[in-house]
Amino acid sequence: xxxxxxxxxxxxxxxxxxxxxxxxxxxxxxxxxxxxxxxxxxxxxxxxxxxxxxxxxxxxxxxxxxxxxxxxxxxxxxxxxxxxxxxxxxxxxxxxxxxxxxxxxxxxxxxxxxxxxxxxxxxxxxxxxxxxxxxxxxxxxxxxxxxxxxxxxxxxxxxxxxxxxxxxxxxxxxxxxxxxxxxxxxxxxxxxxxxxxxxxxxxxxxxxxxxxxxxxxxxxxxxxxxxxxxxxxxxxxxxxxxxxxxxxxxxxxxxxxxxxxxxxxxxxxxxxxxxxxxxxxxxxxxxxxxxxxxxxxxxxxxxxxxxxxxxxxxxxxxxxxxxxxxxxxxxxxxxxxxxxxxxxxxxxxxxxxxxxxxxxxxxxxxxxxxxxxxxxxxxxxxxxxxxxxxxxxxxxxxxxxxxxxxxxxxxxxxxxxxxxxxxxxxxxxxxxxxxxxxxxxx
Length: 442
What we know:
The chain crosses the membrane at residues 135-165, 230-249, 256-273. It is found in: Membrane. Its main location: membrane. This is TECPR1-like DysF domain-containing protein. By secondary structure, this protein is α+β, with helices and mostly antiparallel strands. It has a domain at 303-438. It contains 12 helices and 7 strands. Strands 1, 2, 3, 4, 5, 6 and 7 form a 7-stranded antiparallel sheet that branches. Strand 1 and strand 2 form a beta hairpin. The longest helix has 24 residues, at 194-217. It is extended, with a radius of gyration of 39 Å.
């Protein structure tokens, strides 16, 4: 301690001891923020394998990091715009393998009631519960069509139906004491249980049904995206029908219309309709209508010089033979199975031989080597079309235009016979047509 020699300090004074200098404090590190996965139920997650971020290593997060770095997804809206402050459901969470795994397991455990409702609707619609149950629901729908304001009471009816079905008096094991409450239902299906596996099966079949529906509808999409020449016709037809239907809307009776539209699926799914409709549809001239529409479309594409020239139609026959692999039902059709010395894969004449001269100049190897007489040319706006009507055959043809014959190309039928498949001698042929015009050189 330093002394003060130049100051007279009284004997009764007490010297104040100064505090030692404060130590220099080191700056604290920034707080570490740890994020966790979305919460999951105990019944879904396994205690043996807890999904906590603290137990994961760097290699455990490697798939998520690779996925996030590879897929550059669009970012959300700018936070300054109040209209877009709420994120869309599809972009609420980032793409992550752990989140996807957890959500998938939660979805499988909770989707059971949706598949139960789907099965009940299919049973009613397909008459699986008997005609009385389906007829009752048809009567309910007709009643709602006659009194549409009753739709406002549908939520009340649903709640009452759930309460009545789950009433304790309908359970034989329930207690008669009104103070005893029933246990709540299970929120999730236990992983690995029969119900959980049934949910996975339902998801599997639902994905297949959605894919099949997409494949069925997608061929019509190019007609609406200006990818085919039919888009302009559809656009014009839609405008014309819209203008025609607009003044007729007040004359349309909505109640009978919705009644007929709602009851039509029940009529189509009835077992009697399922047995008779295929025969009725086959009897309809659908193939003739298709051929007629195709010819109108081809005529619309013809150029002016085509109309001023002479038009004719040439025909070509496609021949194939059935080859039995292991049994009569597992064979296949091909032109390579034709025998040596019989008709070739493509012929001009219906009998397989006419139209070929002695020097073989009339023979063809495909529809691309079809030679024409001098001065004639194919119509450029058309292509070869299969004759799906089969009017050249007295017995008709199948839906693709094939006429089936025996091993000797005799006894034609519109469908193959099982006896011919068993014997290994089964053939078929199909007619192709295309128009030609007399080309006048300038």
